[in-house]
Design a protein that fits this description.
The chain contains 17 helices and 6 strands. A 6-stranded mixed β-sheet has the order 3-2-1-4-6-5, sandwiched between helices. α2 links the parallel β1 and β2. α8 crosses α9. The longest helix has 22 residues. Bound molecules: iron/sulfur cluster (SF4). Iron/sulfur cluster binds next to α5. The site of iron/sulfur cluster (SF4) has 15 residues, from α5.
Length: about 450
Amino acid sequence: MALDIQHLENEIIDQYLYDEHPTRPWIIGFSGGKDSTMLLQVVWNALKKIDPVLLTRQIYVVCNDTLVENPRIVKFINKTLKKVQKAANEQQIPLIVEETIPKLDDSFWVRLIGLGYPAPNKFYRWCTERLKINPTTRLITEKIGENGAAIILLGTRSDESSNRAASIKKHEIIGKRLRKHQLPNAYVYAPLKDITTNELWQYLNQVPPPWGGNHKELVTLYRNANAGDCPLVIDDTTPSCGGSRFGCWTCTVVNKDKSMEGLIENGEEWMQPLADIRNFLIETRDNPEIWREKRRRNGQIDENLWGPLKFETRVEILKRILKAQKAIEDTEGVELITHQEMVLIQFHWFRDLFFKTKVSDVYNRIYKTKFDMSKQEEKQKQESDLLRKSCKQEPKDVDLIHDLLALQKTKTLMMRKRGLLDDFENRLDQFIEESKAKK
Ligand code: SF4
């Protein structure tokens, strides 16, 4: 193998053992793709060469689930992560697998169906920060809070073999491996930076993963999906998603989802309804005269700017998702939208005074059951009416109070109140700024 794997492992051992801060943990960004798989494998094999008593630095393997990941890939990643955690425990590798998800109020469906955000495109890509960057940032910040600092390991590669020798030389200078991350006390380490794509595939084909099994499924997935990675996006300096695939199945930032088409062509026909929904999202975004409001959320009408998706459009999208979910959930075990998301969507519909159709009506029609949201619905409606009455003198306070309530409800639904105070303070600060600006 042309690749000097020995050298690579020695570099990693050196960084692990002789770092000036012996307690700052390593956070390995894992997306299940080829780059982060090789990264985890190389780090693991390097650690196996260290005397176990010296393995005192904690390693977190962090995987972000946007909740709209390609379900075929989610299955594969979840299976891998279980194997990774089990094997790490057995082999006494100090590694903990952690999964991050977006805040409920930031979920793709709550934004799109609840608030009427148009499907993202490259000019209005509201999703990456909410679905990917923020959840990971929260985890990194938490680890920095606990340990004072952290090193984030990424599978990023420049894939420019001509730069390789010079770059490796640079890396030989101790202390030059890390670059500063934009978060305070966070550093980025990209050990695979100079590995070419050929070397990477060569390695994965020849070296089995230390957590057991082989890389056949990964190789097949890539072949069937004609795909590239959708890497762990930690900030705006890392390669972003949307252009390369294996990302969200709802992604409308790319014109064609080649990976989903590839998977369908290669036997995963059950994904066809998902591809159809994605195409419908593009239709609702690109034909605003049919699917979107003229009036924007701030009440303005602008000839060149369209408002949120009409309620009827949002109802139609929800209907299509639930129909697709009903068709595949038993055979594929796939959930496309969660109950918590539906509750919050209903909350936003009430807040926007949309009473004609309820989320539970749509659900019950498709599932022919009774998803009983009536108590929540009635309570939300009463809250809304009462609030409007009490804020007659200061109508703008209605929005603020609604936002604070939504924040609180989001955290309660997710059974997590961490960060609630910060969220409240941020929203209050924003309100004060807006009030000052209006004066
Ligand atoms: S993959 Fe597409 S939809 Fe998902 S976060 Fe990236 S740009 Fe947004």
